[in-house]
Amino acid sequence: MNKENLASIITRLYFCNNTRLENKEEFIRMKKDLLELSDDDFCQKLWEFGFYDKEAS
Question: What is the pLDDT of residues 15-36, one digit of tens each?
């Protein structure tokens, strides 16, 4: 899966668990911020959201 698809999934997961989403711009900003992370930092986010857990694969 490419980085953009993963960023979309992480953003959706974040806002599903957090009801603070008040407008679409907030969603787009978070996704953009994720895409601008270095590869190492992005992989860290994947760890945080459980993408490397055996149960998730």
Answer: 777 666 677 888 899 999 999 9
